[in-house]
Amino acid sequence: MELFDGILSDQIQSFFRYIGYGFLFYLLLIWFASVVWVVRDIANRTKDPISIFVAVAISLLLPFVGLPIYFILRPSVTLNQSFENSIEQQLLLTEMYNIDICSNARCRKPLKENWITCVYCGRQERKLCTKPDCKTVMAKKWAFCPTCSAPSEAVQQARQAPGQRNLNNKNQTGIKQAKPKSAPSFNITKVLNQFDFSKLKNLKSNRNNVNKKIDQLIKEKKDKTENNPRN
Fold it and tell me: Which tens digits make up the pLDDT trace of 91-108?
């Protein structure tokens, strides 16, 4: 910068100086981010402490150069991928050799022929034969007992399901065919026939007799008043 003291002004020199500091800070930031990425990546690929230490040392001691070296030396498969590959291999082996494995995703251990529950996680994987005399241990995927050929619980439920559906359909049709009870009808002719009109006639006659007696009393009182006028 001393060569350019006479050519460049102080403001331009300070400007380029700040640009240089910014570029160095950017390189340090990229180096720090690469180290963090290496630590995360190696932790997802292996649990060996020596491999983790070597990967972190390469990224720290060899900035910008250790990252390509790490890409060459790192394990090609992550822990999750290796776990999935092992499960696929176990499934292939169980299908080939007809071996049952535990249905628990965290266990996935092979089961022996006489095991009803998994001895590793305690999950029930099998049941005994439905026939009381037979005590054969049956797997879930078996439809019939290999010893006495008795159907499994799933097969029995599948056979009983159509009968229950038919009963439900019959009950529904019976409910639909049943007619609601009609309300009792009011017949006015029966009421008129049952009514005794003779009582009504007697009431009218009695009323007429009472009115006649009242008229007679009124006339008698008038006659007395006419015969005996007041003085």
Answer: 777 666 667 778 787 887
Alpha carbon distance 153, 179 (integer Å) = 41
Condensed to tens digits (0 to 9), the pLDDT of residues 166-214 reads 656 656 655 445 445 554 454 555 544 555 555 555 555 666 666 676 7
Q: How far apart are CA 74 and CA 63, in angstroms?
A: 17
Encoded tokens for 191: 């009421």
More confident residue, 18 or 8: 18
Contact 125, 103 (CB under 8 A): yes
Going by C-alpha positions, the residue among 165, 164, 145, 166 that lies closest to residue 154 is 145
pTM (two decimals): 0.41
Calpha distance 120→107 (Å, rounded):
7
Other C-beta atoms lying within 10 Å of the C-beta of residue 102: 20
